């Protein structure tokens, strides 16, 4: 029987990640249904649904593997049964969400559109779960040197680039000790299994900085990364992007004290806290002031409102 910890951990992570995936599906279905001619719209609907099945199968798999890492000794057969049941539930939700759009397109095409059938994608998702979770284990081949992982949406790559620059200027960190997948020089190695590599680094990094923006809150993968990290009870620092407020945060990170990239004092605190967590001696403020000012300037140009108040400790 699965432990209460496993179930609570897995359900907490899945709730946020799958809700974000459902929002993405709604947007994709809206866009696909407006295509012309009708058979292009129908094909677009099927493609969106098929992609969502694959996405959710991967999310469920990774959540289960992270839960196993935090709770060793779980029965692999029961973990697999849990994952398959969740994927079946998600398949049904995707079908029910797609059906109204598909009926509309079929009416326009007088029943000549493609069939609403993506059972093969469900079958492939089940096969992937079986191959991965029947003998679950965290990869031992990846001995990462990453100390700092920066979780962010690709739409926030400019801010992520500036945060990396600040950390490099303020702390004696080598490029290979920072992972920031949207910034050149800090991306994943070529040819690696992206999901496995990221999972290992999310769990293994000593510090994870989550850039919190409207884009990251809408990203299933960012929410998964943050949820996975939160479950390990290791250091996770939410860094508010321009215009974001601490009260906008949802899920597990909502209870964490957040720092703002619009506040110079809080950026200094980020450096001080990071140095303590990593066991490093930071440079003097004058050494990294230019990089800090670049973030403040970026924030001011992105958001015209007043600087946010510090979130409650």
Précis, in short:
With 313 residues, the chain is α/β, with parallel strands linked by helices. Helices cover 59% and strands 6% of the residues.
Polypeptide structure, described:
With 313 residues, the protein is an alpha/beta fold. The chain is 59% helix and 6% strand. The chain has 10 helices and 5 strands. A 5-stranded parallel β-sheet has the order 2-1-3-4-5, sandwiched between helices. Helix 2 packs parallel to helix 8 (220-232) and helix 3 runs antiparallel to helix 4 (119-133). The longest helix is centred in the N-terminal third of the chain and has 33 residues, at 38-70. The model has no long low-confidence stretch (mean pLDDT 87).
Please state the oligomeric state of the protein chains shown. Answer: single chain
What percent of the residues sit in helical stretches (DSSP H or I)? Answer: 55-70%
Number of domains: 2
Shape: globular
- Compute the number of strand runs: 5
CATH architecture of the largest domain: 3-Layer(aba) Sandwich
Spell out the CATH superfamily of the largest domain: Toll/interleukin-1 receptor homology (TIR) domain
Compute the number of helices: 10
What is the average per-residue confidence, as pLDDT, rounded to a whole number? 87
Structural class: alpha/beta
Q: Any low-confidence stretches, pLDDT <50, length ≥5?
A: none
- Taken in chain order, the helices and strands follow as HHHHEHEHEHHEEHH
The major sheet is characterized as: 5 strands, parallel
Read across the widest sheet, the strand sequence of neighbours is 2-1-3-4-5
Return the CATH class of the largest domain: Alpha Beta
Distance between termini? 38 Å
- The CATH topology of the largest domain comes to Rossmann fold
Which range does the strand content fall in?
5-15%
Radius of gyration: 21 Å
């Amino acid at each position: 029987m699965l432990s209460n910890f496993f179930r609570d951990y897995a359900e907490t992570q899945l709730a946020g990640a799958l809700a974000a995936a459902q929002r993405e599906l709604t947007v994709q279905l809206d866009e696909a249904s407006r295509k012309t001619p009708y058979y292009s719209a129908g094909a677009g609907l099927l493609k969106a649904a098929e992609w969502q099945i694959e996405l959710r199968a991967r999310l469920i798999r990774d959540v289960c593997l992270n839960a196993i890492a935090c709770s060793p000794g779980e029965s692999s057969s029961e973990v697999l049964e849990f994952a398959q049941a969740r994927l079946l539930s998600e398949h049904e939700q995707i079908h029910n969400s797609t059906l109204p759009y598909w009926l509309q397109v079929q009416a326009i095409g007088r029943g000549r559109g493609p069939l609403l059938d993506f059972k093969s994608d469900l079958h492939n998702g089940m096969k992937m779960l079986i191959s991965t979770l029947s003998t679950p284990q965290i990869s031992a081949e990846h001995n990462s040197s990453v100390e700092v992982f920066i979780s962010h949406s690709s739409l926030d790559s400019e801010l992520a680039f500036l945060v990396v620059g600040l950390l490099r200027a303020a702390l004696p960190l080598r490029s290979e000790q920072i992972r920031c997948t949207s910034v050149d020089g800090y991306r994943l190695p070529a040819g690696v299994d992206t999901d496995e590599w990221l999972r290992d680094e999310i769990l293994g990094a000593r510090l994870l900085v989550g850039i919190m923006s409207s884009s990251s809150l809408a990203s299933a993968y960012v929410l998964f990364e943050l949820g996975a990290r939160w479950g390990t009870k290791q250091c996770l620092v939410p860094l508010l992007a321009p215009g974001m407020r601490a009260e906008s945060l949802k899920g597990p990170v909502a209870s964490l004290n957040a720092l703002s990239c619009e506040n110079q004092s809080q950026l200094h605190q980020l450096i001080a806290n990071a140095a303590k967590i990593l066991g490093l001696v930071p440079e003097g403020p004058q050494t990294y002031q230019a990089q800090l000012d670049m973030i403040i300037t970026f924030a001011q140009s992105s958001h015209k409102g007043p600087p946010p108040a510090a979130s409650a400790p």
